[in-house]
Amino acid sequence: MNKLQEISLSLGIELSGEQIEKFEIYLDELTRWNRQFNLTAIKLPEDIEVKHFADSLAVACGLDSINLENRTRVIDIGTGAGFPGLPLKIALPQISLTLLESTAKKSAFLHHIVDRLGLEDVTVLCDRAETLALSPDYRENFDIVVSRAVARLNTLAELCLPFCRTEGLFIAHKKGDISDEIALAAGALEKLGGSLASVIPVRLAGLDDNRYIVVIRKISPTPAGYPRRPGIPGKNPLK
User: Fold this and answer.
1) Dihedral of the CA atoms 120, 50, 99, 146 (nearest 10)?
2) Are 98 and 139 in contact (CB under 8 A)?
């Protein structure tokens, strides 16, 4: 985990021996489960270390404006095999983490790895964002919403901003030329109560493929009616 430790230090995160051990267990279990369930297309251990673990910790680039106190409520939308939520939890154990994943096999892995790592204050939910965001228990109930999902920003905003409290943050991982994507999302952000705060280039060793952290601040409540029913945000994105 030398690369992970080096990148973490560049982000201002110093990992202890116990935290490194948790990342090693995570890597071993993900590799083992991946042989049967194909949880991620990234399979080489050195790639998982950098492109999953270290890239997940890059969320820290967008957290300068928020105080990560005990029980800071974080939800990871479409987390897959746990990214970026679980690496953040390992590195920042004080957060209260909810992992949302709609695929049963990935949710099963999440339950397994949370138990295997002995992580506390982590909730795994197998559901769709469009459905869960309508529940009073989750709607506008989180300080930070994160997502590495591949959907375009206007779609992601509709899925994620309803979970975010006013003055909270929605942080999206993006890759490639995203200028047009950000411009197209302006109308959706306005409708959903969000405002673009910053676009931060990720300049970390081994991650030189134009990655960005897009930080959106929630400035007003999301109107009732959003998100729309399952599948609609992707098929007919807001403009």
Assistant:
1) 120
2) no
The Cα–Cα gap between 54 and 177 comes to 21
In contact, 141 and 165? CB cutoff 8 Å: yes
Cβ neighbours of residue 40 under 8 Å, at least 6 residues apart? 30, 34, 48, 52, 80, 81
Report the run of H or E that residue 75 belongs to, with start and end: strand 73-77
Residue 214 makes CB contacts below 8 A (sequence gap 6+) with 153, 171, 172, 173, 174, 178, 182, 196, 198, 199, 200
DSSP 135: S
The H or E element spanning position 235 is helix 232-235
Cα angle: 140, vertex 113, 102; to 5 degrees: 45
Q: What is the pLDDT of residues 87-144, one digit of tens each?
A: 999 999 999 999 999 999 999 999 999 999 999 999 999 999 999 999 999 999 999 9
- What pairs with residue 100 in β-bridges? 77, 125
User: What length is written for the chain?
Assistant: 239
In this predicted structure, the answer to whether residue 183 has a pLDDT above a threshold of 90 is yes
pLDDT level of residue 150 (50, 70, 90 thresholds): confident
Q: How far is CA 145 from CA 4, 15, 172, in A?
A: 23, 23, 8
Which one-letter amino acid corresponds to residue 64? D
The pLDDT-based confidence of 210 (bands split at 50, 70, 90) is confident
Would you give the DSSP letter of residue 95? S
